[in-house]
Specification:
Number of strands: 0
Oligomer: single chain
Low-confidence stretches: none
Bound molecules: phenylalanine, sodium ion
CATH architecture: Up-down Bundle
Number of helices: 20
Number of domains: 1
Radius of gyration: 21 Å
Strand content: under 5%
Helix content: over 70%
């Protein structure tokens, strides 16, 4: 059977942006930003996106397109070392960890879409979140979200992922712009924008080494880096595309939507709730639900908002599921439907653990994910820099114009040396911070 590929270049870009834009922008970003000092955090995060994000994306793209395989197959087919092929299996674990907590949050979102329509959380937004966040019902909604994800992945790269994201991404952007325009006109919205956009440099300096690891983790998470998603998506690419141009477009679009999401969330929080809340995974749900509850057209606005979040979450969860699906299809010749169904069985269990146990959920959704993504990206960068070497530059140059081609060699040095050193340093300082 021949391997699938994307129908169009735009299709690939939208699928990759769909993977990038998700709960990371709409839920984890406000959560991390409010816990780490607002605008100062945004600044560090933007710096990491630029300096690590784009070169990191390129590393995954180069490895993916060159091999035409999933992460495990890519690392084993492009090197003769058993160690790299063993390392490739980490990405199967990462995908499982990611989707396990992600589909629990996806389940919360689906529930909030419904609850916005009926107004179920209007009487007591805080109490509502506490009542539905963990437990059997949360596990049920997680299964629903997982099921929808699987239905898209089941249809394949072109008919499933590409055709779904082609519709979802424009809808997300249009609706977010509408919400942002409405949000900034609310009384008191200015304070939210100030919180998001004017950094407190003194605080930044004092807390830089606490902020850096969290900002770096968030930058990787939001760009879907270090998981093998971008590698897998690039493995369905032909050689006529400029990886540098596509990678830059994807990072820019994701950052645009990320900041746009902040422009929606923070003004609404400040205008209608008066603060960003106490942080934590529930902040967005409780804060926005109270905001919507206090509005004349709250049910409508709430439905649109959580609907957008649901679309963004789905276009990301399909990219997580695609990693192990492509692994089983490429490496073991399993059919796509069988692979998808089997993995749904695994995720049904692992996700339910996160849905039932808040302690596991918190640990998985922040610390463990940050560690896996950082370690994973360091692996890809070193692989591109040291195993592929000049071949990585040659792959980078395929389809790239004269301008982009100039950056091939500097990129290789950054990928092989500077960025891994930076990420390892960040990782260790984060670990030191976490241990007290
Ligand atoms: N980038 C996605 C988001 O922001 C999350 C993600 C991480 C998706 C890693 C795939 C791989 O929601
Ligand atoms: Na998404």
């Amino acid at each position: 059977m021949t391997r699938e590929s994307w129908q169009t270049r735009l299709g690939f870009i939208l699928a990759a942006v769909g993977s990038a834009v998700g709960l990371g922008n709409l839920w984890r970003f406000p959560w991390m930003t409010s816990e780490n000092g607002g605008a100062a955090f945004l600044l560090v995060y933007l710096g990491v996106v630029l300096l690590v994000g784009v070169p990191g994306l390129l590393a995954e793209f180069v490895i993916g397109r060159r091999s035409g395989r999933n992460p495990v197959g890519a690392l084993s087919s492009l090197s003769d070392s058993k160690a790299w092929s063993a390392f490739g299996h980490v990405f199967v674990v990462t995908a499982i960890v990611l989707l396990s907590f992600y589909s629990v949050v996806g389940g919360w979102i689906l529930r909030y879409v419904g609850a916005s329509v009926t107004g179920a959380y209007f009487a007591n937004p805080g109490g509502y979140f506490d009542a539905v966040n963990y437990g059997l019902e949360a596990a049920g909604f997680h299964l629903l979200f997982l099921g929808i994800t699987a239905l898209i992945v089941l249809r394949g790269v072109k008919r499933g992922i590409e055709s779904a994201t082609k519709v979802m991404m424009p809808a997300i952007v249009v609706l977010l712009v509408a919400l942002a325009v409405w949000g900034v006109t609310l009384d008191g919205a200015g304070e939210g924008l100030t919180f998001l956009l004017s950094p407190d440099f003194a605080a930044l300096e004092a807390n830089f080494f606490d902020i850096l690891p969290v900002a770096a983790g968030q930058a990787l998470f939001t760009l879907s880096l270090g998981a093998g998603t971008m590698l897998t998506y690039a493995s369905y690419l032909g050689e006529d595309r400029s990886l540098a141009a596509d990678g830059t477009a994807i990072a820019v679009l994701n950052t645009f939507v990320g900041v746009l999401a902040g422009v929606v969330v923070f003004p609404i929080m400040f205008a209608l709730v008066g603060e960003v809340g106490d942080g934590g995974p529930g902040a967005l749900f409780v804060g926005l639900a109270s905001a919507f509850a206090s509005l004349p057209y709250g049910q409508l606005v709430g439905t649109v908002f959580f609907g957008v979040v649901a679309l963004a979450a789905l276009s990301s969860s399909i990219s997580m599921l695609e990693i192990p699906v492509s692994f089983l299809v490429d490496e073991y010749g399993v059919s796509r439907p069988t692979a998808t169904a089997g993995l749904v069985g695994v995720f049904a269990v692992t996700g339910s653990v996160c849905a039932l146990d808040p302690g596991v959920f918190d640990l998985v959704a922040s610390t463990i994910v940050d560690l896996l993504l950082t370690g994973g990206l360091v692996g890809f960068l070193l692989f591109a820099g040291w195993v592929l070497g000049r071949d990585a530059v040659a792959e980078y140059e395929l389809g790239a114009g004269a301008f982009a081609s100039r950056f091939g060699t500097p990129w290789l040095y950054a990928a092989g040396v500077f960025i891994p050193v930076f990420l390892i340093f960040t990782f260790v300082s984060g670990l030191a911070g976490a241990l007290g």
